[in-house]
Amino acid sequence: MTELLDFILHHEDQFKSKARLASLYSDFRVQRTTNPDGYAANITAWQKALTDAVDAGKIPTADKVSSAFCLKTGEELVEALEITGYGRPLALGAVMDEAISEGIMIPLQTFLTESKSIYDKSWSAQSRWLISWGLKRLGLAVSPSSKDRLVRGQFVVASSLEKAASKILASKSGRSNRVDRVSSRKMFKQEIEELLELPHRLSDSDLNALLTLLDRDKKEITYSNNVIKFNAVKEPAAITSYDETIASLKTLIADLNLQIDSLASHVNELAEKARMAVKQNNRVSALATLRAKRVSESLISRRSETLAQLEEVFNKIAQAEDQVAFITVMEATAAHAAPSKSFFMTELPPFNIPDVFEAQPP
To answer: Per residue in 163-187, pLDDT tens?
Structure first.
């Protein structure tokens, strides 16, 4: 039994009786006209089961990358739902067709590229019609007289995305300080994964869908390739070089703290290794280990010094309320900026350091 099927059978009440399983796995499309209530009940049960499975990270994919907000349909999904005694679900195509028609699920690319908000009534009616029409043109929309066909694709689960957005906005409420509302894409992703307590990391598709909802549909954020900013009243929505400075410094400080912690753990390991070498009278190994320990301690010292400089600059920027104050901070700290940046460029090649000390706010 697959992980997905096990999850559905144990968590979905509609899938716990043999009679319901027989109905849910049958080709119940004909019931749309002969038994509308039964048809609707089966559609609703499947849509809830699939939505819950997406939320739980149980949907199988060929690339083994789970999604927090998107349902990937295709042969992998059908195979994962196959159950002994009932076979494969024979009306899953109808389930998806109804979900798309009702706006419960939206093709990912349509969601990402549509210029109008999904809350716009004209968009809802027109876009759903176009999606349904496109599926029919491809022969992928189902009807009682044809064989049920499940379109292969990736679909945004609207309710899952909405729940995540609501939780994020609640966590940001009351944060008026600009530095608290700006972050890099990397840090935003990490914060959201922790906040939502996801069973896996956000995929690129998840993050793009979430940013699109918060920006286009809810008007709560503005974002670029590297910066996400939660909007505020009486403040320009556009991403400025000031925002880029804040995001860059926050990321650098966070990454540097992680490096210092990692080096400190390494120093402790080397110290223990050196003690063991001494106990074993292995002088060569002990001396080599102590030399490595001194190198790591030197790196910690240098990184700590740089961290202190960056934190000082960041704290001053956080207190700068306008452009004049910001420029004053930049001029006052310019002497410290050069060595800090040089250090990162020579000692920490993985970082991509922008010239944050030349930025200005709007």
So the answer is: 999 999 999 887 778 888 999 999 9
